Amino acid sequence: MNFIALNPLTATGSDQAVSVPRGYHLIIRAVDGDVELRHQTGAAAKLTFPLGTLASLGPSLGQTVYVKATAGVTIELALT
């Protein structure tokens, strides 16, 4: 299994795009605040990850997902 650490995102308070290649799993870690996951920008949250949560999602069909958190929150991302 390949592990690809992505650069952490610093939340802006708006939806931020994360491209997930086909067949990969997205790993999200809510470092210091809650993180919401959406399937399209401006849509209702599909999942909410509380502070400190580590979650693996996938396998991807090659889509872009959107993460949102309060401005300043760090969101760690990786692909497997």
Describe the structure.
The structure is a single chain. Strand 4 and strand 5 form a beta hairpin. Strands 1-8-3-6 form a four-stranded antiparallel β-sheet, with no helix packed on it. It has a four-stranded antiparallel β-sheet with strand order 2-7-4-5, with no helix packed on it. The chain has strands spanning 4-10, 16-19, 26-30, 35-38, 47-49, 54-57, 64-68, 74-79. The protein is mainly β and 80 residues long. The model has no long low-confidence stretch (mean pLDDT 95).
CATH topology: Jelly Rolls
The number of helical runs is 0
- Tell me the number of structural domains: 1
Helical percentage = under 10%
The CATH homologous superfamily name equals Jelly Rolls
As laid out across the biggest beta sheet, the strand order is 1-8-3-6
- SSE string, helix = H, strand = E? EEEEEEEE
| General shape | globular
How many beta-strand runs? 8
> Under the CATH scheme, which architecture would be assigned?
Sandwich
- Unreliable residue runs: none
Quickly name the level 1 CATH class. Answer: Mainly Beta
N- to C-terminal distance = 6 Å
Largest sheet properties:
4 strands, antiparallel
Helix and strand content put the structural class at: mainly beta
What's the average pLDDT? 95
Radius of gyration, in Å, reads: 11 Å
Strand content: over 45%
